[in-house]
Amino acid sequence: MDYGAAQSRGEDKSQLILGQIGSIRGRLNALALQQGLFAPLTFILCAVVLIVGAAFAFSPLTFLLLASAVAVVAIAAVVRTARTAWRMRASDERAARIADERAALKGRLTTMVDGARLGQRSALWPYLIEDTLALRDEFSAARIEPRRVSRWLWAAVASCAVAAVAMRAAYGVRTSRLTANNRVARMPGEPSVDLGDLDIRPADPSVEPGTEIDADPATLRKLAEKLREAQSGGPKGSPTSRLMANARDAAKALQNKLTGSPAAEPAPRLKLTDRKGGSDGKSPGQSQDQARAKGAQESLPQSPQSSDNGQQQTEQNPPQPNSGPTPGVPDMSGLAALNGLNNDDSDPNGSPAQNTPPEAQNVPQGGPMGTGGSNHGSGSDPQHLYGDAEKPPLGNDTFKIPVEVAPSEDGSSNAAPPSPPQRTRSALNANQAPDEPFERASIPASDRVTIKRVFER
Amino acid sequence: MNAAAAGEAPSVADFARTFRHVQAEIHKVIVGHQRAVEELLIALFAGGHVLIEGVPGTGKTTLVKTLGLALNLSFNRIQFTVDLMPADITGTRVILSSEDGRREFSFQPGPVFCHILLGDEINRATPKTQSALLECMAELQVTVSGITHQLKPPYFVMATLNPIEMEGTYPLPEAQLDRFLFKVRLEYPDESEMVKIVTNTTGPEDAGVAPIFSVAEAAERIEGLKHLVREVMVAQSIEHYAARMVRATQPSSSRYVGQQANGLRVDAVDRYVSFGASPRGAQALIMGAKVRALLDGRANITYEDIDQVAPAALQHRVMLNYAAHSDGIDAAHIVDRVVQAVRPTRG
Fold it and tell me: Which of A13, A38, B199, B255 pairs as cysteine with A156 (C-beta 3.0–4.6 A)?
């Protein structure tokens, strides 16, 4: 027998086996590639569906947490599956090793690939080739890896279907909401701002917007801080709370974008204007702000005297001489609006007068002169019930507040209605009369001790 | 007539057939001890030497004698005692008188000049005498009075160790232990095996062992089979596996280990082993695995082959510390832990 021919035949057989290993390798790599494509796609689609669903189902903070968790899990899953797919790719050695394991070939293919690569030609090499070739059917590519298509393909198809259904439903809901929002946006709305426990109100319910008011320095500081917070769009709390507020806003914005809810209303633009600079020489913008504040005051429920018909009230009760922009009396243009806002929205229980004691609204405030007295919380301050009000420290603490507001679907408090109701006005009938403020009367000297004791208690 | 008998190189089938034939002849005399006999033959065809440990009466000497008879190779036995001298093993120069009356020194070969040597209770001899075997085992030669005498292959040393009666014994130095390819342990036979032993050895006739080879061809045939073993192919991943296993027997605290950062750490090794296996351990793993592959009709070895021979190849190469002795941990336990730890690292 010709040795060369025998060797050539041996090489042919060797190439036959190595070719079969190559086909196994190709199939394994195709599966790895499919997994690398379809597994991340599946996870991404699932994550998107979950996030969109959460946008419709949960509040902004819950949505934020859930979406973050889903995103983190999805990213981790994508990275993991991509890495797994990368590791699944097979070289000839790895394909031979896998085939050895799955076909129980006891390392024959691995040894063959090693021998071919390194050029090792042992005396037993022909024996190894023949021995392996006899087991050729055992390690056909179809037998080692029966699948041509990765299971992840079906997962990707299923997730695509789910995502399509979910997106269609979301699109429908979003479209209907956008339509409704456009209707709401055209309706005149009521301004909303949370002034919390800021206890400032006009001393006289009939005071007009634009009236200057004065307050004690502590109240003014609180108001200024409140307004700064409103301007900056969030409370000036701890860094954590600011971060949470920002996160909530971001989540809300994303949620609105996904669900088609109205965009977050701009924060009320409130301005503190120094009395000296703004009381006399009003800028056009300020005048506009004041006009808006006035309109706001007219449209909001006021004290009982002005709650039924604010416009009438304003017309029928011209500014009192003692409440006008006289020295020592602060401008009330912005605060009047703020008072209305406060009564309307700051109450978490929905009671407009929660922050304002009823007596402070119903009872004419001020001392016997009818002009001074405490202009904040006077009903709860027995020290200012009688006699002349203490002369308030004036100067730079006086201000006026133009308020620029926009309609809001939901205010910052739970009491705010989801959408501003259409305000209707009707003429008074014959049995009705516009509210008049109670006349102020001096307290009898005999009752002063009793009243003082009651309020001190 | 098989290929080997016809003068051709033996095939894989010849090897397996011959191996099983020898095994069967031995088991005509030796009852039980299947694993020990197989390991003994694996070491023989791998070209190594065997250390046999067993309590008295378990057939150590009988096993070796039977092997010699089955292979039809020259066989010598040395009973090691404390007063045995190296020259008693290797041979010495003696004065001989010629016919013409002249006296001259002549080399008188010792019992090491044979094919199969049984060193019975080798730990009873002094270290000096024990080390006289080193040159024979490693280099197949003996140097006496500056003259080197070659030993004829195949050369196979089987030393027995008595694990009891340790008084007056000299434990083998690590260097000599390392030269044994395998350490084979002979356990007490179970009841049925013991009945069969009694029946075979107390009757009027001894079980006859038929030699496999003729005297003229025995050495050549065995050398041919040993050469075939070396032709078995080993994938690189399996060589790495064997090397990793040997590295895993070395405690990381040993100053001789070197850079162990990439190595596998086994807690039991770090705690109980003072010195691990040497590169001879990896050689033993591969050679033993090659014989096992041929026995299975393969021209390549597998991870399982390595695992199978690991206990016999490594346990006498692992030097335990005092903590191991106090905790009752033996080398077989350590090797078992090492194999379990290395197994997941298969490629």
Answer: A38
Q: How far apart are CA A63 and CA A61, in angstroms?
A: 5
Q: Which of A17, A33, A34 is nearest to A140 (CA)?
A: A17
Q: How many CB pairs under 8 A join A and B?
A: 58
- Tokens at residue B219, please? 């050495």
Asked if residue A105 has pLDDT above 90, the reply is no
pTM of full prediction above 0.80: no
Out of A110, A123, A124, closest to residue B235 by CB: A110
Distance (Å, rounded) from C-alpha A249 to C-alpha A233?
10
Across the interface, whether the CB atoms of B300 and A123 are under 8 A apart is answered no
Average pLDDT value over all residues in chain A? 67
Q: Which two tokens stand for residue A334?
A: 């912005």
Q: Give the whole-angstrom CA distance, residue B308 versus residue B285.
A: 9
Model confidence pLDDT, tens digit, residues B32-60: 888 889 999 999 999 999 998 888 888 88
Which of the 8 DSSP states describes residue A139? G
Domain ranges within chain B, ordered by starting residue: 12-226, 232-345
Q: If you count them, how many residues does chain B have?
A: 347
Distances (CA, A) of A377 to A132, A373, A380, A393, A395: 99, 10, 6, 17, 22
Tokens read off for A393 = 């420290």
Q: What kind and span of H or E run contains B206?
A: none
CB contact under 8 A, B297 and A107: no
Residue B301: closest CA among chain A residues belongs to which residue? Answer: A107
Which residues from B are below 8 Å from A122, CB to CB? Answer: 231-233, 299
CA–CA separation, A101 vs A33, rounded Å?
A: 22
Q: Quick check: helix, strand or coil at residue A422? A: coil
CATH T-level topology, domain B232-345: Helicase, Ruva Protein; domain 3 (1.10.8)
- The single residue listed with the structure tokens 């280990």 is B257
Beta-carbon separation of B233 and A111 below 8 A: yes
Element of type H or E holding B130: helix B127-130
For chain A, list residues whose CB is within 8 angstroms of any CB belonging to chain B: 93, 97, 106-108, 110-111, 114-115, 118, 120, 122-125, 127-128, 131
- State the smallest CA–CA distance between residue A256 and chain B in angstroms: 52
Nearest to A110 by CA among B62, B288, B238: B238
Q: Which of A356-365, A424-433, B327-336 has the highest mean pLDDT?
A: B327-336
Of A107, A108, A124, the CB nearest to B238: A107
What is the C-alpha to C-alpha distance for residues B3 and B9, in angstroms, rounded to an integer? 7
Structure tokens that stand for A35 in this block: 């997994």
According to DSSP, residue B186 is labeled E
Vertex A149: Cα angle to A143 and A153 (nearest 5): 150
Q: Which residues in chain A are closer than 8 Å to B235, comparing Cβ atoms?
A: 107, 110-111, 114
Residue among B228, B300, B347 minimizing CB distance to A108: B300
Query: Is residue B154 reached through a cis peptide bond, with omega within 30 degrees of 0 on the bond before it?
Result: yes
* Type of residue found at A253: A
Which residues, other chains included, contact B220 with Cβ-Cβ below 8 Å and sequence gap of 6+?
A: none
Best of B225, B300, B302 to substitute, by most chain A Cβ atoms within 10 angstroms, is B300
pLDDT tens for B275-331 read 888 899 999 999 999 999 999 889 999 999 999 999 999 999 988 889 888 888 888
Specify the DSSP element, H or E, that contains B10.
none
What's the CATH number of domain B12-226, 3.90.1310.10, 3.100.10.10, 3.40.1280.10, 3.40.50.300?
A: 3.40.50.300
Distance CA A445, CA B2 (A): 141
H or E segment to which residue B320 belongs: strand B319-320
Q: What does the radius of gyration of chain A's CA atoms come to, in whole angstroms?
A: 40
